[in-house]
Design a protein that fits this description.
This protein has 13 helices and 14 strands. With 414 residues, the chain is of the alpha/beta class. The radius of gyration is 23 Å and the shape is elongated. The structure holds S-adenosylmethionine and zinc ion.
Length: 414
Protein backbone atom coordinates (compact mmCIF):
# COMPACT_ATOMS: atom_id res chain seq x y z
CA UNK A 1 0.00 0.00 0.00
CA UNK A 2 1.20 3.50 -0.85
CA UNK A 3 2.01 5.68 2.14
CA UNK A 4 -0.57 8.27 1.09
CA UNK A 5 -3.35 5.65 1.22
CA UNK A 6 -2.51 4.82 4.83
CA UNK A 7 -3.65 8.25 5.94
CA UNK A 8 -7.29 8.71 5.01
CA UNK A 9 -9.09 12.02 5.65
CA UNK A 10 -11.84 10.29 7.67
CA UNK A 11 -9.26 9.46 10.37
CA UNK A 12 -7.10 12.56 10.00
CA UNK A 13 -9.31 15.25 11.45
CA UNK A 14 -9.17 14.53 15.18
CA UNK A 15 -6.26 12.79 16.85
CA UNK A 16 -6.96 9.94 19.25
CA UNK A 17 -4.37 8.05 21.27
CA UNK A 18 -3.95 4.48 20.10
CA UNK A 19 -5.86 4.79 16.82
CA UNK A 20 -5.26 1.63 14.79
CA UNK A 21 -4.62 1.49 11.03
CA UNK A 22 -7.86 1.20 9.08
CA UNK A 23 -6.36 -1.24 6.52
CA UNK A 24 -5.49 -3.82 9.20
CA UNK A 25 -9.00 -3.47 10.63
CA UNK A 26 -10.55 -3.80 7.17
CA UNK A 27 -8.69 -7.10 6.62
CA UNK A 28 -9.96 -8.55 9.91
CA UNK A 29 -13.53 -7.51 9.13
CA UNK A 30 -13.32 -9.19 5.72
CA UNK A 31 -11.74 -12.33 7.13
CA UNK A 32 -14.09 -12.90 10.07
CA UNK A 33 -17.47 -11.54 8.95
CA UNK A 34 -19.71 -11.03 5.93
CA UNK A 35 -21.95 -8.16 4.75
CA UNK A 36 -25.03 -7.77 6.97
CA UNK A 37 -23.24 -9.16 10.07
CA UNK A 38 -23.11 -7.23 13.35
CA UNK A 39 -19.68 -6.19 14.63
CA UNK A 40 -19.04 -4.93 18.17
CA UNK A 41 -16.11 -2.85 19.40
CA UNK A 42 -16.48 -2.55 23.20
CA UNK A 43 -13.49 -0.12 23.47
CA UNK A 44 -14.29 1.83 20.33
CA UNK A 45 -12.07 4.91 20.92
CA UNK A 46 -12.22 7.10 17.83
CA UNK A 47 -14.35 4.61 15.88
CA UNK A 48 -12.11 3.07 13.22
CA UNK A 49 -13.69 -0.39 13.61
CA UNK A 50 -17.18 1.14 13.44
CA UNK A 51 -16.49 3.22 10.35
CA UNK A 52 -14.79 0.36 8.48
CA UNK A 53 -17.72 -1.91 9.42
CA UNK A 54 -20.18 0.50 7.83
CA UNK A 55 -18.03 0.91 4.73
CA UNK A 56 -17.99 -2.87 4.26
CA UNK A 57 -21.77 -2.97 4.88
CA UNK A 58 -21.72 -4.59 8.30
CA UNK A 59 -23.77 -3.27 11.23
CA UNK A 60 -21.63 -1.42 13.76
CA UNK A 61 -21.99 -1.41 17.57
CA UNK A 62 -19.62 0.80 19.53
CA UNK A 63 -19.13 1.28 23.27
CA UNK A 64 -16.71 3.55 25.11
CA UNK A 65 -16.65 4.93 28.63
CA UNK A 66 -15.26 8.28 27.51
CA UNK A 67 -17.76 10.81 26.10
CA UNK A 68 -15.05 12.33 23.89
CA UNK A 69 -14.43 8.94 22.26
CA UNK A 70 -18.17 8.51 21.69
CA UNK A 71 -18.36 12.00 20.22
CA UNK A 72 -15.43 11.45 17.81
CA UNK A 73 -16.74 8.00 16.78
CA UNK A 74 -20.21 9.38 16.11
CA UNK A 75 -18.94 12.29 14.03
CA UNK A 76 -16.51 10.08 12.11
CA UNK A 77 -19.25 7.67 11.04
CA UNK A 78 -22.26 9.94 10.53
CA UNK A 79 -23.38 10.12 6.92
CA UNK A 80 -24.52 11.58 4.59
CA UNK A 81 -23.65 15.19 5.42
CA UNK A 82 -24.87 18.10 3.30
CA UNK A 83 -21.52 19.52 2.22
CA UNK A 84 -23.15 22.66 0.76
CA UNK A 85 -24.80 23.44 4.10
CA UNK A 86 -21.56 22.73 5.95
CA UNK A 87 -19.73 25.27 3.76
CA UNK A 88 -22.54 27.82 4.17
CA UNK A 89 -22.46 27.52 7.94
CA UNK A 90 -18.68 27.88 7.94
CA UNK A 91 -19.11 31.18 6.09
CA UNK A 92 -21.61 32.28 8.75
CA UNK A 93 -19.17 31.47 11.54
CA UNK A 94 -16.43 33.30 9.62
CA UNK A 95 -18.69 36.36 9.21
CA UNK A 96 -19.24 36.47 12.98
CA UNK A 97 -15.84 35.52 14.29
CA UNK A 98 -13.00 35.77 11.77
CA UNK A 99 -12.37 39.55 11.84
CA UNK A 100 -12.86 39.75 15.60
CA UNK A 101 -10.31 37.00 16.08
CA UNK A 102 -7.79 38.40 13.58
CA UNK A 103 -7.93 41.77 15.38
CA UNK A 104 -6.46 40.08 18.45
CA UNK A 105 -3.45 38.99 16.39
CA UNK A 106 -2.66 42.41 14.81
CA UNK A 107 1.10 43.07 14.78
CA UNK A 108 2.98 46.41 14.59
CA UNK A 109 4.47 45.78 11.10
CA UNK A 110 2.72 46.62 7.83
CA UNK A 111 2.90 44.46 4.71
CA UNK A 112 6.10 45.04 2.67
CA UNK A 113 4.22 44.44 -0.56
CA UNK A 114 0.89 46.28 -0.24
CA UNK A 115 1.14 48.25 3.00
CA UNK A 116 -1.83 46.32 4.46
CA UNK A 117 -2.28 45.33 8.11
CA UNK A 118 -0.50 42.17 9.22
CA UNK A 119 -1.71 39.53 11.65
CA UNK A 120 0.29 36.90 13.49
CA UNK A 121 -0.10 33.34 12.24
CA UNK A 122 2.55 31.96 14.55
CA UNK A 123 4.60 33.42 17.38
CA UNK A 124 7.64 31.64 18.83
CA UNK A 125 9.04 32.68 22.22
CA UNK A 126 12.77 33.37 22.19
CA UNK A 127 14.69 34.67 25.24
CA UNK A 128 13.35 38.24 25.69
CA UNK A 129 11.85 38.49 22.20
CA UNK A 130 9.40 36.94 19.81
CA UNK A 131 9.78 35.46 16.34
CA UNK A 132 6.66 36.37 14.40
CA UNK A 133 5.31 34.87 11.24
CA UNK A 134 2.66 37.34 10.12
CA UNK A 135 0.19 37.23 7.23
CA UNK A 136 -1.29 40.07 5.19
CA UNK A 137 -4.98 39.38 4.62
CA UNK A 138 -5.04 41.77 1.63
CA UNK A 139 -2.40 40.12 -0.55
CA UNK A 140 -1.68 36.92 1.45
CA UNK A 141 2.02 37.72 1.89
CA UNK A 142 3.80 36.01 4.80
CA UNK A 143 6.48 37.98 6.60
CA UNK A 144 8.92 36.97 9.34
CA UNK A 145 10.18 39.43 11.94
CA UNK A 146 11.60 39.61 15.45
CA UNK A 147 9.90 41.97 17.90
CA UNK A 148 10.40 42.68 21.59
CA UNK A 149 8.17 40.98 24.13
CA UNK A 150 6.66 44.28 25.27
CA UNK A 151 5.36 45.08 21.78
CA UNK A 152 3.12 42.06 21.75
CA UNK A 153 2.60 40.38 25.12
CA UNK A 154 -0.75 41.03 26.79
CA UNK A 155 -0.12 41.78 30.45
CA UNK A 156 -2.50 41.47 33.38
CA UNK A 157 -6.22 40.77 33.21
CA UNK A 158 -8.08 41.35 30.03
CA UNK A 159 -11.68 40.48 29.63
CA UNK A 160 -12.50 37.22 27.91
CA UNK A 161 -15.76 38.08 26.12
CA UNK A 162 -17.59 34.75 26.29
CA UNK A 163 -17.65 31.45 28.15
CA UNK A 164 -14.57 29.31 28.58
CA UNK A 165 -13.76 26.54 31.09
CA UNK A 166 -12.62 28.79 33.93
CA UNK A 167 -10.84 27.78 37.13
CA UNK A 168 -10.97 24.06 36.38
CA UNK A 169 -8.16 22.23 38.12
CA UNK A 170 -6.21 19.84 35.92
CA UNK A 171 -5.86 16.23 37.16
CA UNK A 172 -3.55 16.45 40.15
CA UNK A 173 -1.57 13.29 39.39
CA UNK A 174 -0.27 14.82 36.15
CA UNK A 175 3.06 16.60 36.52
CA UNK A 176 3.89 19.88 34.86
CA UNK A 177 3.96 23.58 35.67
CA UNK A 178 0.29 24.31 34.97
CA UNK A 179 -2.48 23.70 37.49
CA UNK A 180 -5.53 25.30 35.85
CA UNK A 181 -6.93 24.37 32.47
CA UNK A 182 -7.40 27.93 31.17
CA UNK A 183 -3.71 28.64 31.87
CA UNK A 184 -2.82 26.22 29.06
CA UNK A 185 -3.56 29.08 26.63
CA UNK A 186 -2.21 32.60 26.23
CA UNK A 187 -4.77 35.28 27.07
CA UNK A 188 -4.88 36.07 23.35
CA UNK A 189 -5.69 32.50 22.37
CA UNK A 190 -8.19 32.09 25.19
CA UNK A 191 -10.02 35.16 23.96
CA UNK A 192 -9.97 33.83 20.38
CA UNK A 193 -11.20 30.40 21.53
CA UNK A 194 -14.07 31.93 23.49
CA UNK A 195 -15.19 34.02 20.48
CA UNK A 196 -14.99 31.01 18.18
CA UNK A 197 -16.81 28.69 20.60
CA UNK A 198 -19.60 31.23 21.04
CA UNK A 199 -20.04 31.71 17.26
CA UNK A 200 -20.02 28.06 16.26
CA UNK A 201 -22.55 27.17 18.92
CA UNK A 202 -25.03 29.46 17.15
CA UNK A 203 -25.16 27.13 14.13
CA UNK A 204 -28.76 25.92 13.90
CA UNK A 205 -28.39 22.44 12.40
CA UNK A 206 -27.48 20.16 15.29
CA UNK A 207 -25.31 17.70 13.36
CA UNK A 208 -23.43 20.41 11.50
CA UNK A 209 -22.90 22.24 14.79
CA UNK A 210 -21.45 19.03 16.25
CA UNK A 211 -19.05 18.81 13.31
CA UNK A 212 -17.82 22.34 14.04
CA UNK A 213 -17.39 21.38 17.69
CA UNK A 214 -15.29 18.47 16.44
CA UNK A 215 -13.09 20.84 14.40
CA UNK A 216 -12.77 23.08 17.46
CA UNK A 217 -11.82 20.16 19.69
CA UNK A 218 -9.33 18.92 17.07
CA UNK A 219 -7.62 22.34 17.16
CA UNK A 220 -7.40 22.64 20.97
CA UNK A 221 -3.98 21.11 21.25
CA UNK A 222 -2.50 23.43 18.61
CA UNK A 223 -4.19 26.40 20.33
CA UNK A 224 -2.44 25.66 23.64
CA UNK A 225 0.96 26.91 24.81
CA UNK A 226 2.38 23.39 25.01
CA UNK A 227 3.80 23.25 21.47
CA UNK A 228 7.51 23.72 20.84
CA UNK A 229 9.78 24.05 17.79
CA UNK A 230 11.40 20.79 16.71
CA UNK A 231 15.06 20.43 17.66
CA UNK A 232 15.91 20.19 13.96
CA UNK A 233 14.68 23.80 13.55
CA UNK A 234 11.95 22.85 11.05
CA UNK A 235 8.33 22.47 12.18
CA UNK A 236 6.99 21.92 15.69
CA UNK A 237 5.90 19.15 18.07
CA UNK A 238 2.47 19.08 19.53
CA UNK A 239 1.16 19.20 23.06
CA UNK A 240 1.51 16.18 25.31
CA UNK A 241 -1.74 15.82 27.21
CA UNK A 242 -0.16 13.52 29.74
CA UNK A 243 2.06 16.29 31.14
CA UNK A 244 0.55 19.76 31.40
CA UNK A 245 3.66 21.81 30.88
CA UNK A 246 4.33 25.15 29.20
CA UNK A 247 7.95 25.39 28.11
CA UNK A 248 9.76 28.77 27.86
CA UNK A 249 10.14 28.43 24.10
CA UNK A 250 6.51 27.60 23.29
CA UNK A 251 4.82 28.57 20.02
CA UNK A 252 1.48 30.33 19.87
CA UNK A 253 -0.64 29.61 16.79
CA UNK A 254 -3.48 31.71 15.42
CA UNK A 255 -6.71 30.04 16.59
CA UNK A 256 -8.78 31.00 13.54
CA UNK A 257 -6.23 29.64 11.06
CA UNK A 258 -5.97 26.34 12.97
CA UNK A 259 -9.74 26.00 13.04
CA UNK A 260 -10.05 26.84 9.32
CA UNK A 261 -7.47 24.12 8.51
CA UNK A 262 -9.40 21.59 10.54
CA UNK A 263 -12.53 22.62 8.70
CA UNK A 264 -10.84 21.82 5.36
CA UNK A 265 -10.00 18.37 6.71
CA UNK A 266 -13.57 17.99 7.90
CA UNK A 267 -14.85 18.73 4.38
CA UNK A 268 -12.57 16.04 2.97
CA UNK A 269 -13.50 13.55 5.71
CA UNK A 270 -17.24 13.99 5.30
CA UNK A 271 -17.09 13.95 1.49
CA UNK A 272 -15.28 10.66 1.84
CA UNK A 273 -17.81 9.10 4.26
CA UNK A 274 -20.62 10.43 2.03
CA UNK A 275 -19.09 8.44 -0.85
CA UNK A 276 -18.19 5.31 1.13
CA UNK A 277 -21.12 5.02 3.55
CA UNK A 278 -23.79 7.33 2.11
CA UNK A 279 -27.25 6.49 3.42
CA UNK A 280 -26.27 3.01 4.61
CA UNK A 281 -25.84 4.78 7.98
CA UNK A 282 -29.06 4.66 10.04
CA UNK A 283 -30.44 3.69 13.47
CA UNK A 284 -30.36 0.02 12.50
CA UNK A 285 -26.82 -0.13 11.11
CA UNK A 286 -25.08 2.09 13.67
CA UNK A 287 -25.42 2.11 17.45
CA UNK A 288 -23.13 3.86 19.87
CA UNK A 289 -23.19 3.75 23.69
CA UNK A 290 -21.38 5.84 26.27
CA UNK A 291 -20.95 3.23 28.94
CA UNK A 292 -18.48 0.92 30.55
CA UNK A 293 -18.47 -2.35 28.60
CA UNK A 294 -18.52 -4.19 31.90
CA UNK A 295 -22.29 -4.07 31.68
CA UNK A 296 -23.75 -3.97 28.19
CA UNK A 297 -27.37 -4.45 29.23
CA UNK A 298 -28.38 -2.55 26.06
CA UNK A 299 -27.20 -5.56 23.98
CA UNK A 300 -29.05 -8.85 24.01
CA UNK A 301 -27.55 -12.33 24.34
CA UNK A 302 -26.26 -14.00 21.16
CA UNK A 303 -26.72 -10.89 19.02
CA UNK A 304 -23.18 -10.14 17.76
CA UNK A 305 -21.38 -11.96 14.92
CA UNK A 306 -17.86 -10.66 15.52
CA UNK A 307 -15.98 -8.63 18.14
CA UNK A 308 -12.95 -6.67 16.97
CA UNK A 309 -11.28 -4.48 19.55
CA UNK A 310 -8.20 -2.82 20.89
CA UNK A 311 -8.48 -2.73 24.69
CA UNK A 312 -6.68 -0.33 27.02
CA UNK A 313 -3.34 -1.79 28.11
CA UNK A 314 -3.57 -1.58 31.88
CA UNK A 315 -2.65 2.03 32.77
CA UNK A 316 -0.11 2.47 30.01
CA UNK A 317 -2.01 5.19 28.19
CA UNK A 318 -4.14 7.51 30.27
CA UNK A 319 -7.06 7.91 27.85
CA UNK A 320 -9.15 9.40 30.58
CA UNK A 321 -6.63 12.13 31.41
CA UNK A 322 -5.69 12.78 27.81
CA UNK A 323 -9.27 13.72 27.02
CA UNK A 324 -9.70 15.91 30.11
CA UNK A 325 -9.26 19.27 28.34
CA UNK A 326 -11.61 18.33 25.51
CA UNK A 327 -14.25 17.09 27.94
CA UNK A 328 -14.16 20.45 29.73
CA UNK A 329 -14.64 22.51 26.54
CA UNK A 330 -17.26 20.18 25.10
CA UNK A 331 -19.17 20.24 28.38
CA UNK A 332 -18.96 16.58 29.32
CA UNK A 333 -18.74 15.25 32.86
CA UNK A 334 -15.31 14.86 34.44
CA UNK A 335 -15.44 12.08 36.95
CA UNK A 336 -16.02 8.38 36.48
CA UNK A 337 -15.48 5.38 38.63
CA UNK A 338 -13.02 2.94 37.09
CA UNK A 339 -12.77 -0.69 38.14
CA UNK A 340 -9.20 -1.84 38.60
CA UNK A 341 -7.77 -3.24 35.41
CA UNK A 342 -7.98 -7.04 35.66
CA UNK A 343 -11.45 -6.85 37.23
CA UNK A 344 -12.64 -4.55 34.43
CA UNK A 345 -11.26 -6.86 31.74
CA UNK A 346 -12.83 -9.94 33.34
CA UNK A 347 -16.22 -8.23 33.44
CA UNK A 348 -15.91 -7.06 29.83
CA UNK A 349 -14.94 -10.51 28.54
CA UNK A 350 -17.89 -12.04 30.38
CA UNK A 351 -20.15 -9.58 28.59
CA UNK A 352 -18.47 -10.18 25.22
CA UNK A 353 -19.09 -13.90 25.62
CA UNK A 354 -22.72 -13.30 26.53
CA UNK A 355 -23.55 -11.07 23.55
CA UNK A 356 -21.54 -13.08 20.99
CA UNK A 357 -23.35 -15.70 18.88
CA UNK A 358 -22.04 -19.23 19.28
CA UNK A 359 -19.24 -19.91 16.76
CA UNK A 360 -18.56 -16.11 16.70
CA UNK A 361 -14.98 -14.87 16.74
CA UNK A 362 -13.21 -12.25 18.85
CA UNK A 363 -10.00 -10.52 17.70
CA UNK A 364 -8.01 -8.55 20.25
CA UNK A 365 -5.40 -6.12 18.90
CA UNK A 366 -2.43 -5.68 21.20
CA UNK A 367 0.17 -3.14 20.19
CA UNK A 368 3.50 -2.96 22.01
CA UNK A 369 2.52 -5.34 24.78
CA UNK A 370 4.71 -7.75 26.70
CA UNK A 371 4.47 -11.52 26.59
CA UNK A 372 3.24 -11.50 30.19
CA UNK A 373 0.49 -9.04 29.35
CA UNK A 374 -0.68 -11.16 26.40
CA UNK A 375 -0.67 -14.23 28.64
CA UNK A 376 -2.84 -12.40 31.23
CA UNK A 377 -5.32 -11.38 28.53
CA UNK A 378 -5.52 -14.97 27.30
CA UNK A 379 -6.13 -16.21 30.82
CA UNK A 380 -8.94 -13.70 31.38
CA UNK A 381 -10.53 -14.51 28.00
CA UNK A 382 -10.23 -18.25 28.70
CA UNK A 383 -11.93 -17.94 32.08
CA UNK A 384 -14.92 -16.24 30.42
CA UNK A 385 -15.51 -19.25 28.17
CA UNK A 386 -13.80 -18.17 24.95
CA UNK A 387 -11.52 -20.68 23.24
CA UNK A 388 -8.09 -19.70 21.95
CA UNK A 389 -7.66 -20.05 18.19
CA UNK A 390 -4.40 -18.36 17.10
CA UNK A 391 -2.17 -15.34 17.44
CA UNK A 392 -1.29 -13.30 14.35
CA UNK A 393 1.78 -11.14 14.02
CA UNK A 394 0.70 -7.85 12.50
CA UNK A 395 2.03 -4.34 12.26
CA UNK A 396 -0.49 -2.23 14.20
CA UNK A 397 1.47 0.99 13.73
CA UNK A 398 1.79 3.18 10.66
CA UNK A 399 5.56 2.78 10.29
CA UNK A 400 7.38 -0.21 8.79
CA UNK A 401 8.54 -3.48 10.27
CA UNK A 402 6.90 -3.24 13.69
CA UNK A 403 5.59 -6.58 14.98
CA UNK A 404 2.48 -6.49 17.18
CA UNK A 405 0.00 -9.24 18.07
CA UNK A 406 -3.63 -9.98 17.38
CA UNK A 407 -5.17 -12.74 19.50
CA UNK A 408 -8.10 -14.59 17.94
CA UNK A 409 -10.63 -16.44 20.07
CA UNK A 410 -13.93 -18.20 19.46
CA UNK A 411 -17.14 -18.86 21.33
CA UNK A 412 -17.63 -22.61 21.13
CA UNK A 413 -15.31 -25.30 19.86
CA UNK A 414 -12.44 -24.64 17.44
C1 LIG B 1 -6.79 1.59 22.90
S1 LIG B 1 -8.15 2.73 23.00
C2 LIG B 1 -9.03 2.33 21.58
C3 LIG B 1 -8.53 3.07 20.39
C4 LIG B 1 -9.27 2.63 19.15
N1 LIG B 1 -8.82 1.33 18.71
C5 LIG B 1 -9.13 3.61 17.99
O1 LIG B 1 -8.80 3.16 16.89
O2 LIG B 1 -9.32 4.80 18.20
C6 LIG B 1 -9.06 2.09 24.35
C7 LIG B 1 -10.40 2.78 24.66
O3 LIG B 1 -11.04 2.05 25.73
C8 LIG B 1 -11.82 2.97 26.46
N2 LIG B 1 -12.16 2.34 27.77
C9 LIG B 1 -11.38 2.18 28.85
N3 LIG B 1 -12.05 1.49 29.81
C10 LIG B 1 -13.28 1.22 29.32
C11 LIG B 1 -14.44 0.53 29.81
N4 LIG B 1 -14.43 -0.01 31.03
N5 LIG B 1 -15.52 0.43 28.99
C12 LIG B 1 -15.53 0.98 27.75
N6 LIG B 1 -14.46 1.64 27.25
C13 LIG B 1 -13.36 1.77 28.00
C14 LIG B 1 -10.96 4.22 26.53
O4 LIG B 1 -11.75 5.37 26.77
C15 LIG B 1 -10.31 4.23 25.14
O5 LIG B 1 -11.05 5.02 24.24
ZN1 LIG C 1 -0.05 42.70 1.58
Amino acid sequence: MKNADKFQPRYQLHEYPGRKPWYVIRNYINEYSKPGDTILDPFCGSGVVLCESLITRRKALGVDIDPVAVFISGMTCISPIQIKQLKKDFQKIAAKAKDKIYEIYAVPDLCDRCGGKMFASRVARLPGELALKATCLECNKHQDSIISLSEWEIEGDIEIPYWYPKDIKLPSDIQGNIKYLHKLYTIRNLKALSILWQSLNLVKDEIIRELFRLCFSANLSKSSSMNVPKKTGKGWTSADYEVYNIPDNFIEFNVWEGFANKFQLCLQAKSQTNDLIGDYYNYETFKLFKSSSEKMSFLSDDSVDYVLTDPPYADLVKYHDRNFVRRAWLGYEHEYKFSIYPVMMKNVFKEITRVLKSEGYVSIMLKDTSKEFRRDILEIAGSSGLVYDKTDRRNLGYGNKHVDHVINLKKGKI
